């Protein structure tokens, strides 16, 4: 499943006969052994059939207009090209200003539908994928999007873009221009069912525009876009606006109806998250995704919330939550031994943290694919066991004999049993407790936990105190967001609190997270530095899974092997989104993955009532 990142909102307009007729190619028009269609699923058939009018989770008749003010905290930006490693990219540029060949439906595991391309053609073994470009597709300057632009987009991303693209699209062997509006991607091997879907989802870039500019340089010139919004006014590090393209060519496509209804989207930047939150409560921006349990529990008992002017709404979801954790950089010698890493995990008191800091809102993470059917549990069985037996002797024996477990403490701060177990593992690894410190020869066990947000200190500092009880030296260091990003990209850290998001259909992006090749690529998501040929093979097996059942079994096997490497201290996840918004918007009922303000709409009547009620209180 694609990154951006993704892998994490606005709408579209009325039904139109021209757009509907453009969608008419037969769903499974076969030519020999190929299938040509306006939609494609990773496994099975897409939910939405040809001729569908709109996705079920949007309002196709939502009015257009109004504004939506958003904010990001503890952040800045100095670059309007979000596709390179250099600089700090502005939020929203990739998702709002650039179109893709096809668009993913949000209420099914992984299917794509016509957008810039009105059809996709593949052979049954998916050894290649050909796209027919919609002749109406345009960049913001009115120039057509051609096969040449599509081919150029992927080629420049792989050559000069962020290193993630080299990994993600490494199995695309060549791109063929088969005519002015037809482009074909040939893959290195057949059988990778995800490749046709992920080549649907890179941004459409103009070859003519970028031929006069250096793609891999930081820029504050708004790039020529292809999506539903253009960049408007901005001030680096302070704010950025997006203006809806009023005559956007794709607005009436079935995959676009109900999306992107707001005329003006503005994103303000705050260096301090506390200031950001207070600005939201004062009405300085409209929508807030609350990431802090303390704030959710204690800081919204306001008259605006009580009167329904400010909506505080937990939205349940069944999205895979991935892994949030304290992540060990195994490139550092002190973390090379799994027993040390396991010992450090035993010392984290989740129950105390959840009770005293998070108001009991979180669930303990026990899988890299938490909150989904992809998570391994108990001992391996069935197809998962058959897969793992191929690697016997090459994976930890515990994979077959022990379910991955984490200690459960009383929540009162007493973790003596965990400390004893941790100390025993550390002694087994050669560390001795001397003069209040853990020593191995002349060296001490000491490391730094690097954070980007002051809010993270609330749980990192108590964890550090527990580690110090074992004689481990821990320095909790807060750095500014730009420095944090650069150090993580260069793997210049001991421990960070970070993680990996996941989708319902994992695939090629797993290479960027776990494989040996990614461990040496700056900017990759292989934060741990893991190099394990078994993991490399399991990732390839996931990518080439023949059906949904096989994908689930192979993902469970990968999950189990990763867990038994003890690469992280698993933390927590939420099975709901904590959202707040001022009552001036309409929104469809959330679906199983939650909601997104990409398909909300501005309600002028609500906005006027809100304004009047606020005025009456002043």
Explain briefly what this protein structure is.
The protein has 20 helices and 28 strands. It has 618 residues and is an alpha+beta fold. The chain has two domains: 1-317 and 576-618, Periplasmic binding protein-like II (D-Maltodextrin-Binding Protein, domain 2), CATH 3.40.190.10; 323-573, Dipeptide-binding Protein, domain 3.
How is the topology of this model organized?
Elements lengths: L16 H6 L6 E3 L2 E4 L1 E3 L25 E7 L19 H5 L4 E3 L6 E4 L2 E7 L4 E6 L13 H14 L2 H6 L3 E6 L4 E6 L7 H4 L8 H4 L18 E7 L3 E6 L19 E7 L2 H9 L5 E3 L3 H6 L4 H4 L3 E7 L6 E6 L9 H9 L3 H7 L6 E2 L17 H8 L8 H4 L14 H13 L3 E3 L2 E4 L2 E2 L1 E6 L5 H12 L4 E6 L2 H9 L5 E6 L8 H6 L18 H11 L4 H17 L3 E3 L1 E2 L2 E7 L2 E2 L14 E2 L1 H14 L1
Helix pairs in contact: 10-14, 12-19, 18-19
Helices, by number, come to 20
The SS-based structural class is alpha+beta
Mean pLDDT: 92
* Main β-sheet, spatial strand arrangement: 1-2-7-8-10-9
The second-level CATH architecture of the largest domain is 3-Layer(aba) Sandwich
